[in-house]
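Lecture 7, part 2: worked example. A protein chain together with S-adenosylmethionine.
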Amino acid sequence: MVTQKRDEINMQGKKKFGKKSANQMNDISKTVFAPVYPAIAKNLVEELKIKEGICIDLGSGPGSLAIAVAKITDLNVISFDNSREMQRKAEENIKNAGLSGKISILHGDVHKIPLDNDYADLIISRGSMFFWEDINKAFREIYRVLKPGGKTYIGGGFGSEEIFENVCREMDRLNPEWSDLRKKNLSEENKKRFETALENIGVTYEINTKENGFWIIISKETPGALP
Ligand code: SAM
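Predicted complex, written out as structure tokens:
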């Protein structure tokens, strides 16, 4: 339990996710959370209809969403994270899925993405933005890297009501503290915090609140960075 507590501190974004958190996230992504990623991938592809070009999965962790998206599209996916430990897991999972030709690994921080302006057709992210220190800066970077005509699907969620209920039931059993963290991350108050940031930086966006989470869909019309 003490170990879990220390990991929770890591998961609050106080420092980069280390080996223990990476192992935990990797295990959970293959068990309790396994149905979540294909369901989210299906939802986002159906909603945004972007199936080719370049996709970046920000805070990709063990790479599960990147893998799920690569499986059902022709997108070339970049699994991006600032934790080397997470990236080691992602690399292994991508290789085991036979998707090394479609998914590449890129190390970096979302506050300073090492990619050109107007680079990606689709930028996705699940469960990572709650750890970003400066959301204004991060979303300005995301906007800069997005191609005109491109979209984002960034947030937190579980893919469907049914999956959500199963995950909650199982996670409550495994880690009673998880429920409070989830409620805080996906609260109305936290959603407002992101809305305020997006209003402040002045981008066109909508928030999809289906399936017990929320997803930020930014559309980019003109090239380059925000003024
Ligand atoms: N997206 C994965 C998933 O849903 O399974 C992992 C989610 S995990 C809770 C959050 C991830 O975001 C971690 O892999 C962490 O290293 C990454 N992360 C947190 N802050 C980041 C930052 N500033 N830049 C890049 N990645 C970050």
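The radius of gyration is 16 Å. The pocket of S-adenosylmethionine is lined by residues 13, 17, 25, 29, 59-61, 64-65, 81-83, 86, 109-111, 126-128, 131-132 (CB under 6 Å). Keep this in mind for problem set question 3.
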